[in-house]
């Protein structure tokens, strides 16, 4: 037969183990900053631009066979290369089979 003192000790151990915080639980907080354009698909000749945290489709800049996104400029139209305004650009001619 188990003594009352042993039962009391087992019960106290079980209760204290359930009161411990879980190490796998993450504390509540702000969700990571997400790009509102990540799930938006804009129409032909438009690009997604985040305006005040909302996705908006705006006309893009034509750059040869491609469209430059928001905050980019066309640096090489024959290759369709877009860069940031102060970005590096390769100055070569790309022969395209399709006309744009």
Précis, in short:
By secondary structure, the protein is α+β, with helices and mostly antiparallel strands. The protein has one helix at 4-18, and strands at 46-51, 54-59, 61-63, 66-68, 73-76, 81-83.
Could you please describe the fold and organization of this structure?
This protein has 100 residues and is of the alpha+beta class. The chain has a domain at 34-92. It is built from one helix and six strands; from the N terminus they run H-E-E-E-E-E-E. The chain has one helix spanning 4-18; strands spanning 46-51, 54-59, 61-63, 66-68, 73-76, 81-83. The strands form three sheets. A two-stranded antiparallel sheet has the order 1-2. Strand 5 (73-76) and strand 6 form a beta hairpin. The longest helix has 15 residues, at 4-18. It starts with a helix and ends in a 17-residue tail after the last strand. The model has no long low-confidence stretch (mean pLDDT 77).
């Amino acid at each position: 037969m188990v003594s009352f003192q042993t039962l009391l000790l087992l019960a106290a151990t079980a209760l204290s183990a359930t009161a411990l915080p879980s190490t796998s639980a993450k504390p509540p907080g702000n969700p990571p900053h997400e790009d509102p354009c990540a799930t938006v698909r804009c129409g032909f000749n438009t690009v997604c631009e985040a305006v005040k945290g909302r996705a908006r489709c705006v006309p893009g800049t034509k750059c040869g066979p491609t469209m430059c996104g928001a905050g980019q400029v066309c640096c090489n139209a024959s290759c369709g290369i877009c860069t940031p305004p102060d970005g590096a650009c390769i100055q070569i001619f790309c022969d395209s089979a399709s006309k744009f």
